[in-house]
Design goal:
By secondary structure, the protein is mainly alpha-helical. The protein has one domain. The chain is about 50% helix and about 0% strand. It contains three helices and no strands.
Length: about 80
């Protein structure tokens, strides 16, 4: 899940110190800290694929908000110019 949170300055310092100490990326340090604080250390999560085919390589770095806007624009143009 992708979300936006506001992290207090002192918490950011703790996270960045842990990143520097372990060499782990911010996302991983944050997730591990939340799991640890909530008492779910290392609990495995089963992830099932939704699709059988691999994700299209051409879309891997796409901005999906821009892509959705472009598709919406195309649809609007078609509706206005039958």
């Amino acid at each position: 899940m992708r979300t936006t949170v506001t992290i207090d300055p002192d918490t950011e310092i703790l996270l960045r110190e842990e990143m520097e100490r372990t060499g782990k990326p911010f996302k991983r340090v944050l997730n591990e800290a939340v799991r640890s604080a909530l008492g779910k250390r290392g609990t495995p999560v089963e992830i099932k694929a939704l699709f059988r085919k691999p994700f299209p390589v051409g879309l891997a770095d796409a901005n999906f908000n821009q892509l959705a806007d472009a598709w919406d624009d195309d649809e609007t143009v078609r509706e206005l110019n039958p």
